[in-house]
Amino acid sequence: GGFGELYHFDAKADVFPGYVVEKHPALAGKLSCVQTGYFMSSYKLMPQAYFNKVGLKAEDGTFVMSFPTSPDAKVPHIDINADMGTFVYAVSQMPPCKHYIAEVSRPTWPEFLATWGAVTKQRTKYQEITIAQFIAAAPDKPFGEEAGDMFAYCSSPGYDGADATLLKAADLEKAGIACPMTSLEEYFKKQDWTAVLEQ
């Protein structure tokens, strides 16, 4: 109700599952839907919002993360390149007509940032900013508007729309289907942070 447009989510919701159920009911009977958490690699699209040493209130070499998301909001994450195939393969072994969210964990942004800081041995700080501030700092206005709404939506109702029925990797494991996934710490340890650290 609070958002007139959520392109990042609406474009997907227009197709799955409503469109498929309406236009292709036979296919819908065989279909399961998987949505993903934030890609762990998304920082590459807007590194100054994720890890900024020279911008909004950064001081003493502290890396500041600035999003229009409540610091208490839990947000899902996935190493999309390493784990999406594993997750979808596991889903394919389950009965159809179920809905999933592919995520390894659901930290708050301050917890996400603290994990990064521990791996890179950097001081960190999270600050919640307004959508207008986020748009102003974005590489271009349309991107800032789209991403800003997405980040704000994560505060309320939440990244997945507060849908508690979505199945996760743990549910697949309980069904006896292996679904190993990469932790945030493991992902961070695999990355080359030189460009970020030398800003």
UniProtKB/TrEMBL annotation:
SUPFAM superfamilies xref list: NAD(P)-binding Rossmann-fold domains
Residue stretches making up the NmrA-like domain: 6-187
Signal peptide residues on this chain, from the entry's feature table: none
InterPro entries found in the cross-reference section: NAD(P)-bd_dom_sf, NmrA-like, NmrA-like_oxidored
Keywords recorded for this protein, A-Z: NADP
RNA-binding found in the keyword field: no
One cellular component term from this protein's GO annotations in UniProt: nucleus
Domain of life: Eukaryota
NADP among keywords: yes
Similarity section: Belongs to the NmrA-type oxidoreductase family.
Protein name: NmrA-like domain-containing protein
Lineage: Eukaryota, Fungi, Dikarya, Ascomycota, Pezizomycotina
